[in-house]
Amino acid sequence: MSQYRRTKNFLKIICVAISLYTISTFIFIKPSKIYVGSFAGECGKGNCKTNYEISADYLKIEDTSDDTISNIHRVIKGNFNSLQFSIPPALLFHLGKFGRPDCNDGGGYILGFNLLGIHFNYEIEKGHEPWYFHDMTNVIADRLTKIHAIEKKYK
After folding, report:
1. Measured distance CA(90)–CA(95) in Å, rounded
2. Which residue from 19, 62, 73, 102 puts its CA 20 to 30 A from 148's CA?
3. Strand ranges across the sheet with 47-54
4. Which residues touch 57 (CB under 8 Å, ≥6 apart)?
5. pLDDT in tens, 32-66
């Protein structure tokens, strides 16, 4: 294969990849399970990390503290479709963290989801959301507020 042909094929692949990435920033998908939560910076006393698994028919609560006796693991059955939200597939191109969550002991937000059997998990510092999901921490904070209200009813 000539150098010209290899270069032409490489440019085609790059164009397709850029096109897929661009398209994935404008469409949103709704995973069957979404994980939201928050974590503390320096966890001295109290909750260090709180995770909620949201599915259509249950809400799983996992509060982790520095004192393992007070850890909470609970499942609430019900209709939780209203807590689910859509995410841009462009997140699949990003791994790990947005910003520097937990820097200066500030803590951060957690977002996770399952897609095609693969689990994706992100830690997010408020103010460092990606441009294609600029209200990510606001959406997570909104869901946490709604979940806390539901949680109070079942205590």
Report:
1. 11
2. 102
3. 72-77, 58-65, 47-54, 34-39, 108-115, 118-124, 96-98
4. 77, 78, 79, 80
5. 899 998 887 666 555 577 889 999 999 998 876 65
Give the Cα separation of 109 and 128 in Å (integer). Answer: 11
What are the helix and strand counts (H, E) for the chain?
Answer: 2, 7
pTM: 0.75
Enumerate the β-bridge partners of residue 63. 50, 72
Spell out the residues 6+ positions from residue 154 whose beta carbon is closer than 8 angstroms to its own: 74, 76
Residue 39, domain extent:
3-153
Q: Taking Cα atoms as reference points, which of 88, 127, 131, 87 lies closest to residue 108?
A: 127
